[in-house]
Specification:
Shape: flat
Structural class: alpha/beta
Low-confidence stretches: 285-305
Mean pLDDT: 83
Number of strands: 14
Strand order of the largest sheet: 4-6-7-9-8
Bound molecules: adenosine-5'-diphosphate
CATH topology of the largest domain: Heat Shock Protein 90
Number of helices: 12
Length: about 425
């Protein structure tokens, strides 16, 4: 809606100041053009830009809230499935392990989807974060090839994994690495020909990078379309075919690999196929398997802390039950719980726990207000507090780190990660008490 005042005209004047013989200013001499139309267009553009920015922010907020709402129940689904699979109470039968595996695979896939939608919003808002770690490329590729088997079968293509024995360790965010590889594998299957192949290989480059290449035997990309390939929502004409897609995968892949300090590239020949590659910076550390981390973390806790006490402040009953199930395995360490901040702070004063796990999104007094109150209370301000929340946005993590939390874990919390954090915090406390 253009809001130039009704009846008002705008002129663009091109002229010079004019003076009378005594040197008095009399006005401008020159030409003037009616610029009302241009002014109206300018105002219209400015208003459209403001409206687009507001819509974009509303979209990002909506996606972020949706992600939070979906992650919270997934925390219980994945967490309990992990507890069941670990067979703490009674070992599962082969058949039951198969069922639980399905829950974990389906739940993880759902989580990946949610993350992807959120990622796009984050990329648009320029607020994407990575958790860099040592990643063994060979095992991630193997996992991705196996996860992609339904899409290979659907498009009747065969994977050729030449990286089976690959031992290359790169520095990357493990979750995002999987996401990138899955995306390229899915494209290599979708834009392939029936009976074609998808070949995955890894090679060391001279400049301290490892290159992961995914080649297909598909339709290829015409030269004149190649400069459009990383533009979001541009499907290069695939939108007129039956091949499903959104056109954001490659744009997201490029943003993520570059944010991790890596590179992406491709070459393609029509009717011969395409090769997409990801270059990851090398990492010299060894990679631990998640199972090893859990066992290692638990034994450390057992050996150092016979009577550790942890207070969990959380309003979601399923999350509390999940934590209780985990702590059964960590005996003699004990867990006590409170379902709101006020009760939690009272319990902290009376029972003096070694550590507090504090949910951020509590009804009433939220986690940030709770930690501020704790820090003002001489009786309990020394107790380390770990924040737990389904909100994975960079700004909340930043706020938690600045707000006095010792650490911040996002839900769904991986049990291995939680045990590692508990182990680190309790060990630190043990050392400083000696
Ligand atoms: P989507 O696959 O969801 O459309 P992408 O961002 O992953 O989105 O890819 C953008 C476009 O690039 C695709 O729509 C397709 O036209 C083209 N493309 C991607 N990968 C390949 C490939 N391996 N072979 C041929 N064309 C491809």
């Amino acid at each position: 809606m253009v809001s130039t005042p009704l009846g008002r005209k705008f002129f663009r004047i091109c002229g010079v100041p004019a003076f009378d013989p005594d040197g008095g200013f009399v006005g401008y001499r020159g030409t003037g053009t009616d610029a009302t139309k241009i002014k109206e267009i300018e105002i219209q553009l400015r208003e459209s830009k403001l409206a687009a920015e507001a819509a974009n922010k509303a979209k990002s907020d909506f996606l972020s809230n949706m992600s939070h709402e979906l992650r919270t129940p997934l925390n219980a689904v994945l967490g309990f499935a992990e507890v069941l699979l670990a067979g703490y109470d009674t070992p599962l039968t082969e058949k039951q392990r198969g069922y639980v595996d399905h829950i974990l695979t389906g739940g993880s896939h759902l989580l990946d989807l949610i993350n992807e939608v959120l990622d796009l919003a984050k990329v648009e808002a320029g607020a994407m974060t990575q958790e860099m770690a040592a990643v063994n490329l060979g095992s991630v590729i193997e996992e991705c090839v196996s996860l992609s088997s339904p899409i290979f079968a659907k498009h009747e293509v065969s994977p050729v994994n030449e990286a089976v024995a690959c031992n290359a360790t790169v520095l990357a965010d493990p979750q995002r690495t999987k996401q990138l590889i899955l995306n390229l594998l899915s494209n290599a299957a979708k834009y392939n020909r029936h009976g074609g192949t998808v070949t995955i290989s890894v090679e060391a480059l001279d400049d301290h990078f490892h290159r992961l290449t995914i080649s297909d035997t598909g339709q290829g990309i015409p030269i004149h379309k190649q400069d459009q390939i990383f533009k979001p929502f541009n499907r290069l004409g695939a939108d007129k075919t039956a091949t499903e897609g959104t056109g954001i995968g490659l744009a997201l892949t490029k943003s993520i690999i570059e944010a991790m300090g890596g590179r992406i590239g491709f070459s393609s020949m029509v009717d011969e196929g395409s090769r997409f590659w990801l270059d990851f910076p090398l990492c010299d550390n060894e990679v631990e398997s998640p199972a090893a981390v859990v066992i290692d973390g638990m034994s450390k806790i057992d050996s150092h802390f016979d009577n550790g006490l942890v207070l969990y402040i959380e309003d979601n009953a399923a999350n509390v039950r999940l934590m209780e199930a985990l702590f059964e395995q960590l005996a003699p360490m004990r867990l006590i719980a409170a379902n709101n901040a006020e009760e939690g702070l009272n319990l902290a004063r009376s029972s003096q726990p070694d550590l507090i796990l504090l949910d951020i999104n509590l009804p009433g007094v939220n986690g940030f207000e709770a930690i501020a109150r704790l820090k003002e209370d001489a009786l309990i301000r020394h107790i380390p507090v770990i924040g737990l929340s389904a909100d994975a946005s960079g700004s909340t993590i930043e706020r938690a780190r600045n707000g006095g939390f010792t650490d911040y874990l996002t839900k769904p919390v991986k049990l291995s990660e939680l045990v590692r954090t508990l182990s680190r915090e309790m060990e630190y406390k043990h050392v400083s008490n000696q």
